[in-house]
Specification:
The complex is a heterodimer of chains A (about 575) and B (about 110). By secondary structure, chain A is of the alpha+beta class. In chain A, about 40% of the residues lie in helices and about 20% in strands. Chain A has 3 domains: about 130 residues, Rossmann fold, CATH 3.40.50.2300; about 230 residues, Phosphatase 2c, domain 1 (4-Layer Sandwich), CATH 3.60.40.10; about 180 residues, Histidine kinase-like ATPase, C-terminal domain (Heat Shock Protein 90, 2-Layer Sandwich), CATH 3.30.565.10. Chain B is elongated, with a radius of gyration of 14 Å. In chain B, about 80% of the residues lie in helices and about 0% in strands. Chains A and B meet through helix 1 of A and helix 1, helix 2 and helix 3 of B.
Chain lengths: ~575, ~110
């Protein structure tokens, strides 16, 4: 038999002989006894000594047991102090009243010590349980408060990371309805150094902290790599690699990424596991942007494909994406919003511009007061004129005016590194250290990219640029490129950057790229002014536009591009930034 | 006179076992308190205070039951109920007093023999 711990027990009984009997029984059971002769004394003793259990006679002078019980229960507060009424009352009504005022049990006369002991032990167990329960409740309450506080802090960090981009750009509209403090959905948008922008909509499996944890590196990669000039494919590959490495099995990120090229009027789309997106044409027609890939974080890097679909898009044409929370949201009647409602709204809209607002209103109407079970995110990205991004990219730069201004660097890639590594972000990074040059990151990115691609694609891989004349040709071109890249041996591309300052507010960057290929007949390019809108032809029209000098040497496998720059005057720069703030 | 009908010896011996040295004190306390309560009953009867009458009878009932004086307890119960009903009668007090005198004698005898 287990030994029950000693308690302090208050016995309130006006009858001397009865009190004597009780107190002897209880004391012999090992408990400490406090006695009282009436209700008032009982209340006072309780206040002074806080006994853990009370034996109360019902009928006592000055204050009866029922009144005393009320006081004692009130003083005990949240603590459980069992009260056992001592009674020779036998009518049901009086017994019921004893319980109504807070009594927990009765003990009737003549007192039986075995029953009394059993009752004391039973109530002591109940008291223990109550205390445990309260301790745990207090613990849970405190933990919950801490957790909410931590969530609040983490949320601030998360918001800073996830929403640092250009979601407020004029060509982006979005709605995000978070289901919990951390949204399972993420929406990133960032201007690219080359002009245009990247937009990413992701829907992590699950909600709350686990979803947010995956969102953090995704945001870091998206913003970090976009601003350094990495391509959509490189960013997707990195996000997939990272998420696949850190997320536990069963946790992944359905997502769609857009690369909006305002200069050429193209949009590249990658959709991995999100519902179909829509490309809305100005003429009222629309195309579906289907998911062609598994979500991010599922496949190992070697099996992941970052292949995008490329669409021409005129100014005003737009891309719509939503997370499955929208299609799978339920109304009060248990119906799903569904894809059909979505397309009906698109079909019945007079113009592409209307669609977003009508969809937003329909979603709002549909779910009404029903709490959404998933996160609802809808985003619309519109093809805009290039000028839209002028002030967005200006915001990226113009920080400090110290740094290297006169320098030269030589960088060469050999063999299969050519197939695996894109040197443009690294080279761009070097150039961006020049004070003031950051404002021209778009142009420099484009020049570096064009020169490097020319050297690799045409110089070494000998791909005919004429292939790129049609959208279909693009796919063939890239397939062929992949194939030839695998067999690159004994080749190299070397890049030399040379920067010379010209006073404090300008300079000259000389970029020389030499490849080990056979070269080409460049005589035509040196003289003829090409159609700038023509995509093919080594992007030479574009290069000629951006550079102040463009010359080929040798067999045509060495090219030198000269970029001259000067900081905009203070007045024009400040006008630009003011208009941004509005 | 049959002792068993007035005192529950089994209950008494159990009490004695519990109380040990204090058994005598318990008995004398009971006897003294009981005569005081009987005095209360008389006073209440005189002043026709039915509530006091009933309470005194109730209290004496409780301690009588505890001490094993079952018949005394029964008589107290009759008095208590009469008090509640407002039908006080000297007979009730007399019946209690008679029984108490017997119980007192038998308790003292019990103490001597045990």
């Amino acid at each position: 038999m287990s030994v029950e711990p000693a308690l302090t027990i208050l016995i309130a009984e006006d009858n001397n002989s009865d009190r004597l009997i009780l107190q002897t029984i209880v004391r012999k059971q090992g408990h400490r006894v406090i006695t009282a002769r009436d209700g008032m004394e009982a209340v006072e003793q309780f206040r002074l000594q806080r006994p853990q259990l009370v034996l109360l006679d019902v009928l006592m002078p000055r204050m009866d047991g029922m009144e005393a019980a009320r006081h004692i229960k009130a003083m005990a507060g949240e603590e459980l102090v069992p009260i056992i009424f001592l009674t020779s009352l036998s009518d049901a009504e009086s017994l019921a009243e004893c319980l109504a005022v807070g009594g927990d049990d009765f003990l009737s006369k003549p007192y039986n010590r075995v029953i009394l002991q059993a009752k004391i032990n039973a109530f002591n167990r109940m008291r223990d349980m109550h205390q445990t329960l309260q301790r745990q409740r207090d613990h849970i309450r405190e933990r919950n408060r801490q957790l909410l506080h931590e969530h609040e802090l983490a949320r601030r960090v998360f918001d800073n990371i996830a929403h640092q981009g250009c979601l407020n750009a004029d060509n982006i509209r979005h709605i995000i309805s978070p289901m919990s403090i951390f949204n399972g959905d993420v929406l990133f948008a960032s201007p690219k150094p080359s002009g245009g922008m990247h937009v990413f909509l992701g829907d992590f499996t699950g909600h709350g902290l686990p979803a947010a944890i995956g969102a953090m590196p995704a945001a870091e990669i998206f913003y970090g790599m976009t601003s350094k000039g990495f391509t959509i494919a490189e960013i997707l590959r990195e996000m997939n690699r990272k998420l696949q490495g850190i997320l536990p099995k069963g946790l992944f990120c359905c997502g769609a990424m857009l690369d909006l090229n305002l200069h050429t009027g193209h949009v590249e789309v990658w959709n991995g596991g999100l519902p179909d997106g829509y490309l809305l044409r100005n003429n009222g027609q629309w195309e579906k942007l289907r998911s062609r890939h598994l979500p991010l974080g599922v496949l190992p890097p070697e099996r992941f494909s970052a292949a995008c679909e490329r669409y021409e898009a005129a100014v005003g044409e737009r891309v719509l994406f939503c997370s499955d929370g929208i299609l799978e949201s339920y109304n009060a009647r248990g119906e799903m919003f569904g894809e059909e409602r979505f397309t009906t709204i698109i079909e019945s809209s007079d113009s592409a511009e209307q669609v977003f607002d009508r969809l937003a209103a329909a979603i709002d109407d549909f779910s009404g007061d029903v709490d959404s079970e998933d996160d609802l995110t809808l985003v619309e990205v519109t093809m805009a004129r290039e000028e839209l991004l002028d002030d967005l990219s200006r915001r990226l730069g113009s920080s400090v005016l110290t740094g290297p201004s006169s320098w030269r660097c030589h960088y060469a890639l050999r063999d299969n590194t050519l197939a695996q590594f894109n040197p443009v972000p690294l080279l761009l990074h070097i150039c961006m250290d020049v004070p003031g040059l950051r404002l021209f990151s778009g142009q420099i990115f484009t020049i570096l990219t064009e020169l490097f691609n020319n050297a690799l694609d045409h110089g070494i891989l000998q791909l005919p640029s004429s292939l790129k004349d049609s959208p279909r040709g693009f796919t063939r071109y890239y397939n062929e490129r992949e194939k030839r890249l695998k067999t690159v041996v004994g080749h190299s591309v070397s890049i030399t950057l040379d920067h010379q300052a010209d006073g404090h507010s300008g300079g000259r960057l000389l970029i020389t790229v030499e490849d080990s290929g056979r070269g080409f007949d460049y005589s035509a390019f040196d003289t003829v002014n090409l159609d700038h809108n023509q995509l093919a032809g080594r992007g030479i029209g574009l290069l000629q536009q951006l550079c102040h000098g463009l010359h080929w040497y040798g067999n045509g496998n060495r090219v030198e591009a000269e970029f001259r720059w000067a900081l905009p005057t203070a007045s024009s720069a400040s006008i630009g930034s003011e208009s941004k703030d509005e | 006179m049959n002792e068993i009908s007035h005192l529950d010896h089994e209950a008494l011996s159990e009490l004695q076992e519990v109380m040990e040295d204090e058994f005598e004190i318990l008995i004398s306390t009971f006897l003294q308190d009981s005569s005081e309560r009987i005095q209360h009953l008389h006073q209440a009867l005189e002043s026709e205070a039915a509530d006091d009458f009933s309470k005194a009878a109730h209290s004496l009932k409780g301690s009588s039951i505890n001490i094993g004086a079952t018949v005394l307890g029964e008589r107290c119960k009759v008095a208590e109920n009469a008090g509640r009903a407002g039908q006080l009668s000297p007979d009730q007090v007399v019946a209690i007093e008679e029984e108490f005198t017997l119980v007192e004698a038998q308790l003292k005898a019990y103490l001597k023999h045990h």
